[in-house]
Amino acid sequence: MSKEHKGKLSLKALLQFIVLGAGAYSIYEPIFTRNTYYNAFIEGFGITNTEFATLFSIYSMVTLIAYFPGGVLADKYSPRKLLTFSFISTSLLTFWQSTFPPYSTALIIYGALGVSTTLTFWAALIKATRQFGQTMGGESKALGSLEGVRNITKIIISTTCVWLFGRFASISAGLCTVLRIYAVIIFICGILSWIVFSDKQQEEQAVSKGSIIRLIGQCLKNPAVWVISLMVFGSYAMSANLSGYITHIATSNFSLTAQTAAVTVLISTYAQPVGSFAGGWIGDRIGATKAMIVSCLGLIAPAAVILLLPKSPDMMIPFAITFLVFTMFRGAARGQYYGPLREAGVPMHLSGTAVGLIATIGYSGDTFLPIVSGKLLDSMDAVSAYKNFILILIGFGCFSICMSLVMLRIVKSRQIGSDKEAV
Fold first, then answer.
1. Whether 185 contacts 158, CB under 8 Å
2. Lesser CB count within 10 Å: N end or C end of the chain?
3. pTM for the full predicted model
């Protein structure tokens, strides 16, 4: 692609990016909308809390297993084929889910959703976005913008669905409608993926011609990929877990009502896309790794403030502002998780495998940190429990910064090596 075309988006390119951003949000809502409609799921499926938790355990186990092979798959097949399959299959599974089938069938559906949203989707999504960055003039900008569009889509669609949900007398009927709305949106993303993406344009640089074993070997022997995985591991562990417990922290530590805490969290979500776009812009100017350091510092500082704020309802406004800042930097960090791949010298035809490895390690904190928080809450009062938990999360943030500094040394050594070869 010629330089004069970089940074200029055609209508087709704009449609591609909208599909990526809107699809990246919508495809996960059949799973994660449980946070909003928990009671409706229980009523609709007619299951216990334990059975409901088991459904998500099945999904989580499948995704953890699927990330790495999904990356290899993304290097053997074009994003167009994988994205289309993921959207269409997830849409059909969501329609099936909306019928509230028996529990044994629901287990199969949730396991299948783990495949369609991870094995054939996640690495292909990131790879397609990296390719898109060549059109936008910067991979960091593309990755940050993807996260920004994803969050804007979330604000628009989730708000609409919550309003529609409240129009039904039966919460299970409302949930059925919400799930089918998402199914239609995901299906449209699938159709558009096939139309707006082209195999011929991307196949030469995107699809690896080598064997799978060689593909994996090339990825595993690159130390920078492992370092990026640990950068993501620390940053994600901190941001995702503090965000996940923030409502309970607000009610138990600052005596906010459940409604006030929910409103505080809702308002803060509007800051996340701002952080995502800003993080992408910064990443293309100072480098994705340095942008990650800035983002992690931006996560640690408000977390420390929450830790030190007097535990009083009078601190509601300072608490809300602090979490809003945290959410903005969370958006910046999430948008740059895969930005350092370019600095690591990972070619496009290996990016899927690299993304698979990074995701497997980077998101593994979900397998043990909820257990840590649960044990803390069961063994001490909420104020003490969250004090210790936030300290642990700040430790993960510091770990991410340390790994980012290691990555900067790797980048510097690569640049020195390139300069010597040029001489």
1. no
2. C
3. 0.80
